[in-house]
Write a structure and sequence with these properties.
Length: 402
């Protein structure tokens, strides 16, 4: 068996030497490009999803989110809940959100939306809004007549190209009128405008919890959710378990569990796009290898007939062609991995600018191994079939056909 493999390897090496360096180089480059195509697009999609996940954690849900039980609108005794959660090991800080529906007027513009409230001291430890205030300042404890506005809410003077309704270019220092759903009307000075590049986060406005207490009247503001920051993202499931063990009866979810269904559906759609991309790359590789091996075997029919006539086993001849394909794939995948590494390095240094954030391709070892294995198996099969067909011809037929 070992001797057969040695003979196959010898025949494969001789065939590659006689096959022409230019042709072999072309096949290697094509295999490299196929591998790059199979991995790069999925890596960009993974990078885009990673940006979305980071934005969700940084601005929308934090690592763990607590909401009222089903069919209950508000969290009962949120102060006790905050005190309990802040004692849980692994929790950095918890911040409650106190929303109320309303509308915002500025000059001739009106935007109907939810006005949210938080305690600025808690919020700076749980989310990153305070790090992305592009104009003005973040809210401070005790602020009563000031409001923090997302850049998509502030808008631009020329709002013809805006997807969302906006205030048409409100800036820091401008006074806006907020009409709350309970009938209270307040005027606020815009203290800061934040830009996070998250569509969801940048279409939010905030006042302080003290202000929302005053707006809500007797009983104060009521919280609908509590965001919990953990020491690390990976601890979220463990912290959720500990929160429940501390006797919290509300609905506790990690950020992954809290993702809306539309996001899960989007992830499935991206997975389908990935599969189509990989399948397309494999088809190109299989067709290329099949044509390459078919041309080579039919050009070498006479030689194959002679090899059979002197008693060489069919398996040795077939293996020699499969080895040629594997060798070309080996060099092609090595070159493809090098190209891929250079592209990832470049786009890590200069990320791709998407509307909702800068995306860096994410390439994992498992992704490379899986796609390389698929490429090798597909190419080996594509190389085996034409060699098997020619080798199974009669000796005289093969010699005459050459």
């Amino acid at each position: 068996m070992l001797n057969d493999q040695k003979v196959s390897a010898f025949l494969a090496a001789r065939s590659l030497q006689r096959g022409g360096k230019g042709r072999n180089a072309m096949y290697i480059v094509i295999i490299a490009l196929v591998l790059t195509n199979m991995i790069f697009l999925p890596s960009v999609i993974m990078g885009a999803m990673d940006v979305y996940y980071e934005q969700t954690i940084d601005y929308i849900s934090s690592d763990v989110i607590i909401k009222p039980p089903e069919d209950v609108r508000y969290i009962d005794d949120v102060e006790t809940l905050l005190a309990t959660v802040n004692r849980v090991p692994g929790v950095v800080r918890a911040s409650a959100r106190y929303p109320m529906a309303g509308s915002i007027d500025f000059e001739d513009k009106t935007v109907a939306m939810e006005i949210n409230a938080f305690d600025p001291r808690d919020e700076t430890e749980v989310t990153k809004f305070h790090q992305y205030v592009k104009d003005g300042d973040f809210l401070g404890s005790g602020d009563r007549d000031q409001i923090l506005v997302g850049s998509l809410v502030a808008g631009e003077p020329d709002d013809t190209g805006e997807f969302y309704a906006s205030l048409g270019g409100a800036t820091v220092g401008d006074t806006i009128t907020v009409r709350y759903a309970n009938g209270v009307v307040r005027e606020y000075r815009i203290k800061g405008i934040f830009t996070t590049k998250s569509y969801q986060a940048d279409y939010m406005v905030f006042v302080t919890k003290d202000e929302m207490d005053a707006v809500s009247g007797a009983g104060g503001a009521q919280a609908t959710e509590v965001l919990v920051k953990t020491v690390t993202n990976e601890e979220a499931p463990l912290v959720k378990k500990r929160i429940l063990q501390f006797g919290v009866g509300e609905d506790v979810k990690t950020w992954e569990e809290a993702l809306p269904d539309v996001v899960s559906e989007s992830i499935e759609s991206f997975a389908i796009i990935n599969m189509i991309s990989v399948f397309g790359g494999l088809v190109i590789a299989v067709v290329l290898i099949f044509i390459m091996t078919t041309i080579k075997t039919f050009n070498n029919r006479k030689q194959i007939g002679i090899l059979k006539a002197i008693g060489l086993k069919k398996s040795i001849i077939i293996n020699s062609y499969v080895m040629q394909v594997v060798f070309i794939c080996l060099l092609g995948t090595a070159l493809g991995s090098l190209l891929l590494g250079m592209m990832v390095l470049y786009f890590t240094t200069y990320p791709i600018e998407f509307p909702d954030g800068n995306v860096t391709p994410i390439v994992t070892i498992s992704m490379i191994i899986e796609n390389t294995a698929l490429l090798f198996v597909s190419s080996a099969v594509a190389g085996f079939i034409p060699a098997w067909r020619v080798v199974n011809e009669g000796i005289l037929e093969a010699i005459r056909g050459g």
